[in-house]
Amino acid sequence: MRAVPTLLILIAAGAGFPARLAAQGQQPPSTNRPATTTAAPPMPPSAATFLGGVPSGTATSDAQLITVIDAIRRALEHNLGVLTADQDLGHAEGARWRALSELLPNINGRISETREKLNLAAFGFGGSTGGALFAGIPSIVGPFNVFDARVYLSQAVLDFGALNDVRAEAHTVAAARHTYQSARNFVIHVAATLYIQALAASARAESARAQEATGRALYNQAVDLKQGGMIAGIDVLRAEVQLNTETQRSTASANGFEKAKLQLARVIGLPLGQTFTLDPKLPELPDPDMTIEQAVERAYVIRPDYQAALERIRSAEAARRAVVGEALPSVKVNADYGTIGLSPGDAQSTFTLIAYARPFARGGCRHPPPAFGGRRPQGFDLLRGSHGLSRSAGHEAGTAGGDEGEGPRGATAHSIPRPVCRRGGEQHRSGSGAGSGGPGERAVHRRALWL
Fold this sequence. Notes:
Strand order of the largest sheet: 2-3-5-6
CATH architecture: Up-down Bundle
Radius of gyration: 37 Å
Number of domains: 1
Largest sheet: 4 strands, antiparallel
Number of strands: 9
Strand content: 15-25%
Structural class: alpha+beta
CATH superfamily: Outer membrane efflux proteins (OEP)
């Protein structure tokens, strides 16, 4: 009969263990996979971003000679477009590590020691009058100590949603790398173009100054001829008007040259207030020895903006598979190991090992339609097409660094939402946390650039 009181005390203590943990604020580490929101693949920086730079260095009183090579080198180091693309690459790599953490083991630990006193009547072990239910068993148990030191392990063995999230983030990282390379190529084009435009503005200013000098010489000649009685006064007035016109043009051309220099200095990140001069000697470049068809084929292979667009498409497709994979069965293993007892000295080792599978389907959920309307965008299968890049290759090299969300041939952005579920009569999206749609609502946005 002594086994009965001991059994009742153990049952009561086990029933009160979750309540004791809640009262102390010490919950066992959760083993459920948290709902994650995957960031949209980085789009190319807008064209306006490439017109700015980060000033670096200290301004000097001496004018610096800046060659076109120096301008390109400084632009690659200090231009905002390149720096922004580099930051986007770092964010994409961080998001990939975060998605990869869902496939890695989660290890947590907890050490607790409590002192308790239980009322068995609160758990139903008591008579109708409030006395003891069994003779010899007190209604109040304790006080006694409970010491527990434990390590928790959670590992996803098979999770299609997490696997496809990692694949989507891997494609996002690849797209960010291509976008970064495209930004470097584009900033070379921007810096070289602004340098040549500044040289052209300098030539226009020189020509305007020469015209002004000619007009001043003609005006002085007209004044001398008027004093000698050779011409009428109207001719002197005409020469004066022409001189004023050339002076105004010279001033406007000089201001345009200074503005072009300021724009170039801003793009390449020169120190504020630094004076500099330009080198009119440009390096010789060989003429391209290829046909337009060869140029198009080469662009399909090495153009980083085109490759980045394809990676965004693959990322969006993987993101959709991740959404579908959340409704597929997943296998996970939860385990814990530790010691428990009345004190650390008499604690005994215990462990728990649980392997479970999530159900095949969850009621009340509907999945989004197929990505891209059930078909792939044209840009995915355009590697050997007769349009796209081939149509624009004869007119312009490309549109790297275009406005966000836009690209060749009317590029559009796509988003893939999480499954919409109904629980307890309330509609919400899978996931937790506050978002732009309200509490408890979170969506996965994926952008795919169409070519």
